[in-house]
Amino acid sequence: MMRALQVQNLSADLSGVSIVDTAIPEPQSDEVLLRIEAAALGFPDLLMTRGEYQAKPALPFIPGMEAAGVVVRAKSDGPWREGDRVIAGMLTGGVAQFGCFPEGALLRLPDRLSMAQGAALRAAYLTAWVALVCRGVAQAGEWLLVHGAAGGVGLAAVDLGVALGLKVIAVASTQEKREAIGGLYKPAHVIDGSAGFREQVLTITGGRGVDLVYDPVGGDVFDESTRCIAFDGRLLVVGFAAGRIPQIGANIPLIKGFSVVGVRAGEYGRRFPDRGRENIAHILEFADQGRIKPHVHAAFPLDDWKLAFQGMEERSVIGRSVVLPHG
Fold this sequence. Notes:
This protein has about 325 residues and is an alpha/beta fold. It has 2 domains: about 1-120 and about 295-325, Alpha-Beta Complex (Quinone Oxidoreductase, Chain A, domain 1); about 125-265, NAD(P)-binding Rossmann-like Domain (Rossmann fold, 3-Layer(aba) Sandwich). Helix content is about 30%, strand content about 25%. It has helices spanning about 45-50, 115-120, 120-135, 150-165, 175-185, 200-205, 220-225, 250-255, 265-270, 275-290, 305-315, and strands at about 1-5, 15-20, 30-40, 65-75, 85-90, 100, 105-110, 145, 165-170, 190, 210-215, 230-235, 260, 295-300, 320-325. The strands form 3 sheets. Strands 3, 4, 5, 6, 7, 14 and 15 form a 7-stranded mixed beta sheet that branches. A 6-stranded parallel beta sheet has the order 10-9-8-11-12-13, with helices on both faces. α11 (about 305-315) links the parallel β14 (about 295-300) and β15 (about 320-325). The chain is globular, with a radius of gyration of 20 Å. The protein starts with a strand and ends with a strand. Pfam families: ADH_N, ADH_zinc_N. This is Alcohol dehydrogenase. InterPro entries: ADH-like_C, ADH-like_N, ER, GroES-like_sf, NAD(P)-bd_dom_sf, Zn-ADH-like_protein. One of its GO terms (molecular function) is oxidoreductase activity.
């Protein structure tokens, strides 16, 4: 038997979520049994407990889209061996002591990273890589404006942007977050966007604006970004954490000479499998070399799972929080 977090009913207040005792799953022929050491939580995990995410797994389900752990059982002619340290990416199943995952859903965990860091690596940094490199065609020396820079995908974009040689302007809402971002990754500038950011950005860039905007926020942030982006800039649409999906007249990017570029990292890999594998390989290489380092805000034992979710609700998390199923 094992302990796992289970969503039994959808609710707005996590009342349908609880810890259960359940059988350790048996791996199918193409699966690996993993002892899960850390599960990273993202906003989609919270939305799924409410039934508000685009993917709606059947009830009951174990939340957790990202995890890291140790291989317990794998077929002898497969790519994994007992004792391998791996990262798992999936729709559900992470917040449990054990889980079965397809062989192809696992990645080697870089030696430099802890289990908690490994759990926080895949989705955030893949989103940042696809946005900046594949869709944004970022070049060293360009200006990058990162919104929601303290969030999971935002902080990854700051870290990766610095590693790529971009001049990063990180936007965060509180002094605590701004100090943390500056201390962790030392971007060129960290600014307060709560009262607007256009004038600050134009002053920093000498009036020309930024070459790339990384926007997982949407709403008013998107609107204002169009007023401080440089000619030939790329406005990368990553998400809509603000709630409002913005609209733009086609005349604005025409006159100002910038592109609005959609980013769907997972779908990019599904449409272009070879490129998807290359993207993952680049991220692992950067991690191996110490060029990127995922930040774990806090690690909670399984019994304190609710604190991890509440941190996301309150938007107090810097990077990612993780749950330790055996903690």
